[in-house]
Amino acid sequence: MTRNYLITGGAGFIGSNYVHKLLQRGESVTVFDNLSRAGAPRNIAWLQKEFGKNAFRFIIGDVRNADQMVDAAKDADIIVHLAGQVAVTTSVTNPRDDFEANALGTFNALEAARLSQRDPIFIYSSTNKVYGGMDDVELIEEATRWLYKDLTQGCAESQPLDFHSPYGCSKGTGDQYVRDYARIYGLRSVVFRQSCIYGPRQFGVEDQGWLAWMMIAAVTGRQITIYGDGKQVRDVLHVYDLLNGYDAAIEKIDQAKGQVYNIGGGTRNLLSIWTEFGPILEKLLGKKIEVARGDWRPGDQKVFYADYSKAKDELGWEPKIDVEEGVEMLFEWVKANKELF
Q: To the nearest whole percent, how much of the chain has pLDDT over 70?
């Protein structure tokens, strides 16, 4: 049975990949996006080239506009809310815009779902930034990376929330609203606290999407700046694995509704942002990369990796693409699409 999907931020990196997957399997898709990101028009053009201009409904709209959201959501069976402001640094310089895009935008999307009378499934892309700096968690320093001392499987959903930075506050506000709409209104909503997502169609910039940004910069000869010591660790997750997580939650919504899931690459897919990724990138590029250095940035966690065992136990989900394979796939995509950058 064909279902009606509404993807807010559907022209973005994650959104366009999901729209592609949904259209491939014959779902009915509405893309809702304000095209504010530089790569968004390129992603729409790609989707239209792949499937035809009439293959999906495209609304140029903004989640800050409540009436637009209500109209867009009225026929949706599934709402995947990906729209929002995505960079910690941008949130620090413009906290009002960040609040309106993330906190108010998510509230508007939830209200549109609640008012639609269709009992839609609601998937929300939250962030590991809701856990803040995790200053009470002891770290150990190794030659090329920082690690948690005692959280051997990574950060679990039981870790106390500590919204750090305006971005952490705005995304955390949405996170808790989405969770509570399940409790108070019975909305079939699910929160994914996502770690470092990477993959094709990611037009990374210095402030967001670091792995793709460094790869694009290396291939196009731009300056790379490393902030902090370069040993900050993330568990990287390929976007295709993330999308399988969305599908798993939708198919098991009776189990997943009202739940929060940490979703990332886990301990199998750890990567420090330069002391480990740098040599990989230099090998792929075939030459040494000279980098500039900068101070630590606010809200930049030394370590984050997710314990995804809850998603594995309840949704049957785990990453399939390991970091070596995924990074090589992204490098090939960047090289093949140099003209886009």
A: 100
